[in-house]
Amino acid sequence: MVLYHSFYLKESGDLYMSNKAGGNILFHDSVTTTGNGNVFKVNDITTLNVIFSISTSGSFSVTFEGQVQYQGSWFPIKTVNLSTLTLSTTATDATGVYQIDTTGFENIRVRVTAISGTLSCYGKGVY
Q1: For residue 21, what pLDDT is reported?
Q2: Taking 90 as the threshold, does the pLDDT of residue 13 lie above it?
Q3: CA triplet 123, 53, 63: central angle to 5 degrees?
Q4: How far, in Å, are 22, 30, 34, 65 from residue 16 at the CA level?
Q5: Could you give the CA distance from residue 68 to residue 74 in angstroms, rounded to a whole number?
Q6: Those residues with Cβ within 8 angstroms of residue 14's Cβ, 6 or more apart along the chain or in another chain
Q7: Which of 39, 43, 48, 74 could form an S-S bond across to 100 if both were Cys, CB 3.0 to 4.6 Å?
Q8: CA-closest candidate to residue 112, choices 48, 52, 45
Q9: Distances from the Cα of 110 to the Cαs of 12, 64, 98, in angstroms?
């Protein structure tokens, strides 16, 4: 577990340190069919890194989506593939890390829209 250190000023004027660990989520666990997967509640997370694992000779397509209000509509959101530095609302490549700016969103999901093989999808949130 990685700890992030933040310093805060109490009302008394004393300085104290807080350790915050980023949030983890398993969006999809060895899925073989399309679906919405698990939802990540953003809370104070500002950045979400997403990685994929696909079975040998498998293929997939996912759409990154965010929800502004609880039980509201889902909207496609742009991610940055940190390997290629390209922006997209979808992913079809398991290599690299996809990074999402979660600012302004209540929830994030990674919806599987096409799949051949077995796919897992993991996320790590950073404060």
Answers
A1: 53
A2: no
A3: 60
A4: 19, 42, 46, 36
A5: 8
A6: none
A7: 48
A8: 52
A9: 44, 5, 11
- Gyration radius from the chain CA atoms: 16
The residues with which 31 forms a beta bridge, in sequence order, are 119
Three-state SS at 14:
coil
The amino acid sitting at 98 is: Y
Q: Give dist(CA 65, CA 77) in Å, integer.
A: 5
Angstrom distance (rounded) from CA 65 to CA 107: 8
58 neighbors 11 (Cβ within 8 angstroms): no
Q: What is the pLDDT of residue 8?
A: 43
DSSP output for 63-103: EEEEESSTTS-EEE--EEETTTTEEESEE---SS-EEEE-T
Looking at residue 118, its amino acid is T
Q: Is 22 helix (H, G, I), strand (E, B) or coil?
A: coil
